[in-house]
Amino acid sequence: MTPIWTHSNAPMPPTWKRGGSCARPVARSRQAWDRIAVGYDRTNTPTQMWLGGEGVRRAGLREGMSFLDVAAGSGALSIPAARLGGRVFATDQSAVMLELLEARARSEGLSIETGVMDGHALEFADASFDIVGSQFGVMLFPDMPKGIDEMARVARPGGRVLVHAYGDPRQIDFIGFFVEAVRAVRTRLSNPVHVGIGSKPR
Q1: Tens-digit pLDDT profile for residues 37-86
Q2: What element of type H or E holds 165?
Q3: N or C: which end of the chain has fewer CB within 10 A?
Q4: Domains and CATH numbers, the chain
Protein backbone atom coordinates (compact mmCIF):
# COMPACT_ATOMS: atom_id res chain seq x y z
CA MET A 1 0.00 0.00 0.00
CA THR A 2 1.43 3.35 -1.08
CA PRO A 3 0.34 6.47 0.82
CA ILE A 4 -0.02 9.68 -1.20
CA TRP A 5 -0.19 12.84 0.88
CA THR A 6 -1.02 16.40 -0.06
CA HIS A 7 -0.46 18.38 3.12
CA SER A 8 2.05 20.29 5.18
CA ASN A 9 4.06 18.70 7.98
CA ALA A 10 2.02 20.33 10.70
CA PRO A 11 1.86 19.06 14.30
CA MET A 12 -1.18 16.97 15.18
CA PRO A 13 -3.88 19.17 16.81
CA PRO A 14 -4.74 18.18 20.39
CA THR A 15 -8.13 16.60 19.59
CA TRP A 16 -6.63 14.23 17.02
CA LYS A 17 -5.78 11.54 19.54
CA ARG A 18 -5.80 7.82 19.04
CA GLY A 19 -8.35 5.80 21.01
CA GLY A 20 -11.30 6.79 23.18
CA SER A 21 -14.94 7.17 22.20
CA CYS A 22 -15.86 9.26 19.16
CA ALA A 23 -19.61 8.63 19.35
CA ARG A 24 -20.72 12.05 20.61
CA PRO A 25 -18.35 14.14 18.46
CA VAL A 26 -19.36 12.14 15.38
CA ALA A 27 -23.08 12.63 16.10
CA ARG A 28 -22.62 16.39 16.53
CA SER A 29 -20.53 16.53 13.37
CA ARG A 30 -23.15 14.62 11.37
CA GLN A 31 -25.86 17.09 12.36
CA ALA A 32 -23.65 20.06 11.51
CA TRP A 33 -22.77 18.72 8.05
CA ASP A 34 -26.41 17.94 7.32
CA ARG A 35 -27.28 21.56 8.08
CA ILE A 36 -24.63 23.12 5.83
CA ALA A 37 -24.68 20.52 3.04
CA VAL A 38 -26.64 22.53 0.48
CA GLY A 39 -24.45 25.62 0.84
CA TYR A 40 -21.27 23.53 0.84
CA ASP A 41 -22.36 21.79 -2.35
CA ARG A 42 -23.01 25.12 -4.01
CA THR A 43 -19.80 26.93 -3.04
CA ASN A 44 -17.11 24.41 -2.07
CA THR A 45 -17.57 21.30 -4.17
CA PRO A 46 -17.33 22.96 -7.60
CA THR A 47 -14.15 24.84 -6.65
CA GLN A 48 -12.49 21.71 -5.22
CA MET A 49 -13.33 19.42 -8.13
CA TRP A 50 -10.13 20.27 -10.03
CA LEU A 51 -8.01 19.22 -7.05
CA GLY A 52 -9.89 15.95 -6.79
CA GLY A 53 -9.22 15.30 -10.46
CA GLU A 54 -5.50 15.95 -10.06
CA GLY A 55 -5.36 13.70 -7.01
CA VAL A 56 -6.98 10.65 -8.58
CA ARG A 57 -4.97 11.09 -11.75
CA ARG A 58 -1.67 11.22 -9.86
CA ALA A 59 -2.73 8.27 -7.72
CA GLY A 60 -2.91 6.25 -10.92
CA LEU A 61 -6.66 5.60 -11.03
CA ARG A 62 -7.60 3.88 -14.28
CA GLU A 63 -10.81 2.60 -15.80
CA GLY A 64 -12.20 -0.37 -13.94
CA MET A 65 -10.22 0.17 -10.73
CA SER A 66 -12.12 0.27 -7.45
CA PHE A 67 -12.04 3.56 -5.55
CA LEU A 68 -13.36 4.35 -2.07
CA ASP A 69 -13.98 8.00 -1.13
CA VAL A 70 -14.06 8.48 2.65
CA ALA A 71 -15.94 11.54 3.98
CA ALA A 72 -16.90 12.21 0.37
CA GLY A 73 -19.11 15.25 0.92
CA SER A 74 -21.01 16.00 -2.27
CA GLY A 75 -18.44 14.57 -4.63
CA ALA A 76 -15.36 16.72 -5.21
CA LEU A 77 -13.22 13.55 -5.25
CA SER A 78 -15.80 10.91 -6.24
CA ILE A 79 -17.04 12.67 -9.37
CA PRO A 80 -13.55 13.05 -10.93
CA ALA A 81 -12.81 9.41 -10.03
CA ALA A 82 -15.97 8.26 -11.79
CA ARG A 83 -15.17 10.43 -14.81
CA LEU A 84 -11.92 8.47 -15.16
CA GLY A 85 -13.88 5.22 -15.22
CA GLY A 86 -13.27 4.15 -11.64
CA ARG A 87 -15.78 1.94 -9.83
CA VAL A 88 -16.54 4.42 -7.07
CA PHE A 89 -18.08 3.91 -3.64
CA ALA A 90 -18.59 7.15 -1.68
CA THR A 91 -19.09 7.18 2.09
CA ASP A 92 -19.99 10.05 4.37
CA GLN A 93 -21.61 10.50 7.77
CA SER A 94 -24.10 12.95 6.22
CA ALA A 95 -26.99 11.46 4.24
CA VAL A 96 -27.77 14.92 2.88
CA MET A 97 -24.26 15.24 1.43
CA LEU A 98 -24.58 11.86 -0.27
CA GLU A 99 -27.95 12.79 -1.75
CA LEU A 100 -26.32 15.86 -3.31
CA LEU A 101 -23.44 13.70 -4.56
CA GLU A 102 -25.89 11.28 -6.17
CA ALA A 103 -27.66 14.18 -7.89
CA ARG A 104 -24.34 15.43 -9.29
CA ALA A 105 -23.50 11.94 -10.55
CA ARG A 106 -26.90 11.54 -12.24
CA SER A 107 -26.54 14.90 -13.97
CA GLU A 108 -23.34 13.61 -15.64
CA GLY A 109 -24.59 10.09 -16.28
CA LEU A 110 -22.08 8.65 -13.81
CA SER A 111 -22.56 5.58 -11.63
CA ILE A 112 -21.44 6.00 -8.00
CA GLU A 113 -22.50 3.80 -5.10
CA THR A 114 -23.00 5.55 -1.77
CA GLY A 115 -23.39 4.61 1.87
CA VAL A 116 -23.78 6.52 5.13
CA MET A 117 -20.87 5.38 7.25
CA ASP A 118 -18.58 6.43 10.11
CA GLY A 119 -15.07 6.68 8.69
CA HIS A 120 -13.66 5.49 12.02
CA ALA A 121 -15.22 2.06 11.34
CA LEU A 122 -15.59 1.43 7.61
CA GLU A 123 -18.04 -1.36 6.83
CA PHE A 124 -15.78 -3.15 4.35
CA ALA A 125 -13.54 -6.19 4.52
CA ASP A 126 -9.78 -5.77 4.56
CA ALA A 127 -8.11 -5.17 1.19
CA SER A 128 -11.33 -4.24 -0.65
CA PHE A 129 -10.23 -1.32 -2.86
CA ASP A 130 -7.45 -0.48 -5.29
CA ILE A 131 -7.35 3.15 -4.12
CA VAL A 132 -8.83 4.75 -1.00
CA GLY A 133 -9.05 8.55 -0.87
CA SER A 134 -10.21 11.42 1.29
CA GLN A 135 -10.24 15.09 0.32
CA PHE A 136 -10.49 17.51 3.28
CA GLY A 137 -12.39 14.78 5.13
CA VAL A 138 -10.32 12.46 7.32
CA MET A 139 -8.34 15.48 8.52
CA LEU A 140 -11.48 16.59 10.43
CA PHE A 141 -12.17 13.29 12.17
CA PRO A 142 -12.27 13.34 16.00
CA ASP A 143 -9.76 10.47 15.83
CA MET A 144 -7.79 11.15 12.66
CA PRO A 145 -5.23 8.33 13.15
CA LYS A 146 -8.07 5.82 13.43
CA GLY A 147 -9.60 7.15 10.22
CA ILE A 148 -6.29 6.78 8.39
CA ASP A 149 -5.83 3.28 9.84
CA GLU A 150 -9.23 2.34 8.41
CA MET A 151 -8.35 3.74 4.99
CA ALA A 152 -5.16 1.69 4.95
CA ARG A 153 -6.98 -1.43 6.17
CA VAL A 154 -9.42 -1.49 3.25
CA ALA A 155 -6.75 -0.74 0.61
CA ARG A 156 -5.48 -3.78 -1.26
CA PRO A 157 -1.83 -4.86 -1.03
CA GLY A 158 0.01 -2.70 -3.53
CA GLY A 159 -2.91 -0.25 -3.56
CA ARG A 160 -2.79 3.43 -2.67
CA VAL A 161 -4.18 5.79 -0.03
CA LEU A 162 -4.73 9.37 -1.20
CA VAL A 163 -5.23 12.19 1.34
CA HIS A 164 -5.75 15.87 0.58
CA ALA A 165 -5.51 17.88 3.81
CA TYR A 166 -4.76 21.35 5.10
CA GLY A 167 -1.81 21.75 7.42
CA ASP A 168 -1.22 24.11 10.34
CA PRO A 169 -3.84 26.91 9.99
CA ARG A 170 -1.19 29.46 11.06
CA GLN A 171 0.65 28.67 7.82
CA ILE A 172 -2.36 29.02 5.50
CA ASP A 173 -2.47 32.57 4.13
CA PHE A 174 -6.12 32.71 3.14
CA ILE A 175 -7.29 31.73 6.63
CA GLY A 176 -5.25 34.59 8.08
CA PHE A 177 -6.76 37.03 5.57
CA PHE A 178 -10.27 35.83 6.42
CA VAL A 179 -9.70 36.12 10.17
CA GLU A 180 -8.35 39.66 9.85
CA ALA A 181 -11.35 40.67 7.70
CA VAL A 182 -13.78 39.35 10.30
CA ARG A 183 -11.86 40.99 13.15
CA ALA A 184 -12.09 44.34 11.33
CA VAL A 185 -15.83 44.31 12.02
CA ARG A 186 -15.84 42.11 15.14
CA THR A 187 -12.96 43.55 17.12
CA ARG A 188 -13.54 41.30 20.17
CA LEU A 189 -13.16 38.11 18.14
CA SER A 190 -10.44 35.82 19.47
CA ASN A 191 -7.84 34.75 16.94
CA PRO A 192 -8.92 31.17 16.10
CA VAL A 193 -5.50 30.15 14.82
CA HIS A 194 -4.19 30.65 18.36
CA VAL A 195 -7.04 28.67 19.95
CA GLY A 196 -6.57 24.89 19.88
CA ILE A 197 -9.20 22.84 18.13
CA GLY A 198 -11.78 21.83 20.70
CA SER A 199 -10.67 24.41 23.27
CA LYS A 200 -12.71 27.33 24.55
CA PRO A 201 -12.01 30.81 23.09
CA ARG A 202 -10.08 33.11 25.37
Answers
A1: 999 999 999 999 999 999 999 999 999 999 999 999 999 999 999 999 99
A2: none
A3: C
A4: 2-164 (3.40.50.150), 169-202 (no CATH)
